[in-house]
User: Fold these one by one.
Assistant:
Number 1:
Amino acid sequence: MADLNTNVRYIKGIGEAKAKSLGKLGIATLGDLINWFPRRYEDRREIKPISQLIPGEPACVSAMIASEPKLSHIRKGMDLVKVRAVDDTGALDVTFFNQSWLKNQLRVGETYTFYGRAEGSLLRKSMASPIVEPEGRREHTGRIVPIYPLTAGISQLLLSRAIRQGLDSCADILPDCLPDGVRQAHQLCRVNYAYENIHFPEAPEALDIARRRLAFEELFFFAIGLKLLRSRRETVSVEPFQPVDMAPFYNALPFTLTDAQRRCVEEAIADMQSGKPMNRLCQGDVGSGKTMVAAACVYFCIKNGRQAALMAPTELLAEQHYRGLAPLLERLNIRCALLTGSTTVKTKRSVTAQLATGEIDFAIGTHALISGSVAYADLGLVVTDEQHRFGVAQRTALAEKGEHPHTLVMSATPIPRTLALILYGDLDVSVIDQLPPGRKPIETYAVTSAYHPRLYAFIRKQVEAGRQVYIVCPMVSENDELPDERKAVTEYAQKLQTEIFPDLKVAFVHGKMKAREKDAVMSAFAAGETDILVSTTVIEVGVDVPNANLMVVENAERFGLSQLHQLRGRVGRGQHQSYCVLVSDNKNDETRQRLKAMTKTADGFKIAEEDLRLRGPGDFFGLRQHGLPGLRVADLGCDTRLLAEAQSAADGLLAEDPALTHHPATAERVRKLFQQSENSLN
Ligand code: ADP
Ligand code: MG
């Protein structure tokens, strides 16, 4: 008897080698196998008469073998089987390469279904190496055929046959983790029907029904998991923070906070006074001033006599925060320290010691802040910046350095509301929906590379006016290999320096450089010592150089809208008129549409929604990086209504059965789903 935990080798045709290949896809058991869903489907239901085959187009025909199959050896290692097949409307020459066994399998007078690309002329039609199946056994012809993501050594045919067997052996024991009441209330099909039809749909309608059920299920369990996370947190009590006079902090700032910044600060402060640990996301477009919101919270925490930590995803950002915040806070008697991978051993030792005794109030740094040797005397607030680079696990690891410290997560990725609900279902959200005053909109242009001479003249003009320029460099791949960013950046920088701007200072930075080298280049740029910075997308996140006012993106078609928006957000941070020039020779309609969208809108949320519509959530939003389980069926771009339904169903179920004691199957499924982020469930 097989069950979902049975090894895939149970399946006929899966030996050791194939099992190993399947292992690369993460398929080890029958359960994994039947949960390997098609990437897409091909509708091969229509059987065409031979006379209507169109050369160049794939199609199915049903035809009788009219001649004895002929086998010939063309050369060593190359056999050919030729056969003629006919239907009422015409004849078809069929050839198969290296499938010599077909010579004895195809029988004259029997009818077969063929699927392949028609070739030849209107009068003499042919097909080369079509899929062939006996009439009445339609796996890959005459039906809607699933197309699976594959790996080396595994073919579509093999995989779909294995899945067929897997489904047949598990059909009666598939557990339905969706409570019956929920299933009925939302008019969802049963689990057997769903699995059968997600793999082998009889009709498009059946596929829709199956997909809807499986998508709902994913969203439902996801929502439950997040709600459980949240409710566990809500049972924790902490000493409420006391009110603090914030005037000294506000007076020390070189500007007044915007209303939106102010509101976010107040929301966070209210959380910290509530007696429950804060778990808040502060979301704001690039340049909206998230850093000062964090600083205000840090001030509030430290004036409550507790320590605070700010974790950034790169050394560059950590150092930038340190340079920006330490002078401000130290004037307010707050002792700050920087802790990154390149902090010297000696400094690290002293900082660690002072964090442990509480002599340092505020630590700014990278992952170094969560390394094993670092301990805090009394950590009260944890801020993580540019959160989409961190996983839940890292967020949690820093929080675990304290007794339920408050956490504030800052994200520059404007995430559409639908997605925020999913990704941050366990967080409260504040939005900074306003930019600091006096910002001029960034003028954005989409041009072709023919524009380069004029573009170079424009760059020169900006530099002569005292400004600085970013150029995100072209990435050229040779022979389809992944582009070499180091080579691309250094070569382009060299070309600009020697041929175009011999009199200007050109520098470059890329991800393969050592953190210290990178930092030296960035600091020089921030200090105005270099004019033009050629880089890869390492400058995508968070870097703040207000004097830079021109962003040039070469091969702009390579970037998604949200990424372009992040890049563009590196300029327009000071009082100068800023520009963004997107260079692309790509003529693809969708690309042109995307670049055009960039010239039309500056609103990060609109752009993110457009991006979601054009590209789907994919991994750009880093579902996996979040340490949250990825969604395989649900499409957050399209399934908004379903998401709302699943959320309310999750609310309903938890209201009735908060600990899921009466729904063990559901509880088990949720537990599995969140296994990777187990830490955060405890
Ligand atoms: P982001 O939200 O992208 O992290 P930053 O915190 O880096 O934005 O702020 C962007 C720039 O705007 C910084 O140079 C910062 O000093 C400035 N800034 C922040 N808040 C204000 C404000 N209320 N008024 C004027 N400038 C501000
Ligand atoms: Mg920032």
Number 2:
Amino acid sequence: MLNIGVLISGGGTNLQALIDAQKTGIITSGRITLVLSNRKDAYGLVRATQNGIKTQVIQRKVCADNETFDRQLLEVLRAHQIQIVVLAGFLSILSDAVVKEYPNRMINIHPSLIPSFCGKGFYGLRVHEAVLQKGVKITGATVHYVSDIPDGGDIIMQKAVDVLEGDTPETLQRRVMEEAEWKILPEAVELVCRTWKEKGLDCHE
Ligand code: GRF
């Protein structure tokens, strides 16, 4: 079983989907052993605690500078022997130093069909506002490896969702979460964990 670290900033509904997927046997090749948030009020921390998962908070504003934040984050991930890092609603951009520590072992969920509506400034509701503004009829979610380019890493999995007449950014966000994010993130986490497990990356590396 690989040690999974989940990074969050907010409500943690994607984290909840991962926790539920462990219970229902969708995720069997890894287990969430740490939830780390850059915000102390993130409700995802409550979800982790309710499920007996260790939590840590590292606030960028408390750190002297970005390098200190990144160093502290890496120290925590190493201390918990994290092997697979999942960014689930994590709204802080990680430096190359952190990303390079987890080549093809750090993944992110983005609420659009990359390469559309992604990159700098496209996060949360803004993505869905842009989708409605453009008038596309299909949107969805993407799980991809994290690289040094925001939302630029290789794509692992995608799922399409219809844009409906009368959709607001809120109704569209909810549908993309329910019909796409909460389904493909657990499946992608299991796929990545199983791939590394078969390569022999076990709990002691
Ligand atoms: C969601 O819009 C998700 O697409 C994005 O972050 C937002 C919050 O997700 N990754 P969560 O409820 O905190 O998992």
Number 3:
Amino acid sequence: MFFRISARTLFTRIVSVIIVSGFIGSLFGQTFLAVSIVSLCLLAWHYNHLFKLIKWLWQGKSIAPPQANGIWGRIYDGLYRRIRKQRLKQKQLNERIRKFRDGAEALPDAALVLSTELIILWGNKKASKLLGVRWPDDIGLRIDNLIRFPEFYKYLGDGDYNSPCLITSPVNNELQLELRMMAYGSDQILLLARDISKIQRLEEMRRDFVANVSHELKTPLTVVRGYVEMVQASETALDPHWKKAFTTIETQVSRMDRLVEQLLVLSRVEHNVDADNHQEVNLSRLILMVIEEVQWLNQDKNHNINHDINHDIAPNISINGNEHELKSACLNLISNAIAYTPANGIIDIRLRNDGNKIRFSVKDNGPGIKPEHVNRLTERFFRVDKSRSRNTGGSGLGLAIVKHVLNHHHGELSIESDWHQGSEFIIYFSPEIAK
Ligand code: ADP
């Protein structure tokens, strides 16, 4: 029901009351007295209702307002309607919040809602199991007062929430957690923590398995290779049929040997066994050494290998890292350029300080790589053209090794390639590791 009252109606009513009371008063010769008494009664009536309204607003227990007639009845009705509307909205909002919380409780992950100042606003039950953050007891506390790990502080400090942060659970040091934070709404942050202990254990098992198998394969391969070489070197001439067979065995054993060697290198860099073995590495000297070493690979291809690295001119390009791993990364890029570029190609190798980063690049005028393959090149065993790669003795592990080495050295790999035009593989080392 909608009640409309205008200023004109109000005015007409007051004037009518005054005229009527004045008229009645005039019948008794007391016009002024009659008007005054009626006005006072009107005022008292209004004050009485104002008083009731204030009492109801401040002390009333029921949502139903006091009963009244006339204009005050309308006022109370209006207020009552508003309160009911508000209650309905509140109920709907509570229902939505309850549904959101039920949904968040059903998540297999710990979920926390934080303010932009990292104050805890809400958390699900999993958050208390995985992170030790109890809701509602810990409301109002800062999350970094409860999760006190240097890696978490660094994650918050960097403010780059695109990648996850890995920590050990503050309540159970056997659990490994992956934390992700994302801003939502205008002033809230959602923090999700997932238990990745099982995945990590499986990943570790896989790495150990590959490392052990590769290691175990090494000895039998060496023995087979030794015997094949012995037979090939023997003075007695072999039947041409057997000669061909032994040559094939030798080629395949060498391929397998290279594969096992690459697998061992990959498992070493994956385990990051040389993490503590970092020292100053003179990149200029190291790359010159690699260029020297790959000359024998270039014998058949006869590429024109150019470089601008002169240890005497730029002796100061050094970084802090593991020499063995860095050499392996550079060697992989240069030997790929040699292997995949058709004979008599041009390979340019550059090393320079580019702004505040160190840039190492290997550019060739080989077949190039299709854009859809570029992102997959660093996956283990990924080869664009399996038969071509097999012919070049490729295992698909070289760039995976490069990726892991760069992860340990704050480095980034950028691949620029035009199909049929050539490729450029660029490594950027961040200034953090520059000496
Ligand atoms: P592989 O041992 O097979 O060379 P990599 O991981 O080093 O393995 O390289 C992955 C794939 O990337 C290769 O199989 C090849 O198809 C492609 N690739 C790498 N470098 C080049 C290059 N310079 N030019 C063209 N293709 C390349």
